[in-house]
Amino acid sequence: MRRSHDRLNEAVAAYAPVAQEGRDRLFAIAERTAPYELNLDEGALVLDGHRFAAALLGSLSRASYTWLWAWANPAIGPDHPTSAASLRLRDEIGPVRGWWELEDDAFPLEGVIDAGYGPGASVASVAATTIGAGAYFGVDYGDGIAYLAITDPAVRRTPPSALTLPHRLRTAAAAVPGHARAQALTYAREHGISADDHGRSVVLPLADGVVVLEIGADGSLGEIHAATEHSH
Question: Any idea which fold 165-228 has?
Answer without folding.
Answer: TATA-Binding Protein (3.30.310)
